[in-house]
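Database export, one record per block. Field names are fixed; values are copied verbatim from the stored entry.
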Amino acid sequence: RRKAGFERFDSPGKGRGLRITRSFKVGELLFSSPAYSYVLSVKERGCYCEFCFTRKEHLARCGKCKKAFYCNVKCQKGDWPMHKLECSAMTAFGENWCPSETSRLVARILARKKTQKQRCVSEKILLIEELQSHVEDVDNEKREMNEADIAGLHRFYSKHLEFPDHKDLLTLFSQVACNGFTIEDDELSHMGTAIYPDVALINHSCLPSVIVTYNGTSAEVRAVQDMKPGDEVLISYIDLLYPTDDRNNRLRESYYFTCDCQECKSRSKDKAKLKVRKQSDPIEPEVVNNMVRYARKTIREFRLMEMCEQSLEEMGAVFDDSNVYMLHMMYQAMGVCLYMEDIDGAVRYGEKILKPYSKLYPPYSLNVSSMYLKLGRLYMGLGRRSMGISAFKKAMVIMEVAHGKDHYYLTELHKEMAQK
């Protein structure tokens, strides 16, 4: 729930925003927000409770569809108003049941709208209808995706839902695209998608003052800088590893604006992020520019380990190992190693990534803590306990600020560290 100490205001050049009316210290919780609507990813079914997103073994299965899992009867009953939208359809369609995650979330939003509107008004929560949609800015590719999602909505949910007209549905899908939040676990793996209208008020900066983490299905907003009354509450909408031009390309593609924060104006970290190899003869700017174009293209198109290794070799002739495009490709290579169960290979790539990550990301970055967690668990699996404990402790320093000291993830991490 929102605590006292906030006010909405018109942020110059950004529209509505949120600012604080009292001081907050690093790690302090500004507010916690329940989801307006949320959905667990299909690939996580059986690992997490559909209702509360608790991860546990021996979850109880829905007796009808046998595809949804719950902690207990209480969670199953709590989820029924949403699960009933899918339960009979999953049984009827069988393997042909395949709505996108966005369609699943929109179906739940439509089901919840009528019952939630009165509560939102009474608690002064931003209404779904008030969210930015940028529907007029959507390009043909995104419009086609929205049309496909709408077709899926009609196909799989017509039994339980009444749909608004097509124009309103296009607007709603655009609102979800601009304002949806990906719920992630402690290693930043995708668990589900949710809408938090209150959190959607917060504007973007590449120098964020707060971070959003998740406790079950609730979003928690914590300070990552000391904040004084009058400061605007700012989060990052994107991965901050990349240089200014890349960040702003991503912001324009997904959110239809260009950032003008101090980091974007000064580009103070771009040189470190685009570091080139030291050579006797300086590398010509055109060579660097060509390699940046190659790296961007490769990042969009890469698929296999061979391509990762080939790209690292090609880029490594010009770029330093700490260059962000090298780090991106190493991260992908680490993922491929994990998939292939090459644990030693995954550790080698992870160790190369960590030091530059710690320098290039802002303080208390979840990207850094998740890398420490990944490496810590790999070390423990290899019997390198002292190195595993060391990595876990470094992750905890960040997580205690980002998640809060009493978060479930910290409790579980203490248990992992205590195991023989």
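Remark 1: The first helix runs from residue 73 to 93.
Remark 2: The longest strand covers residues 6-11.
End of record.
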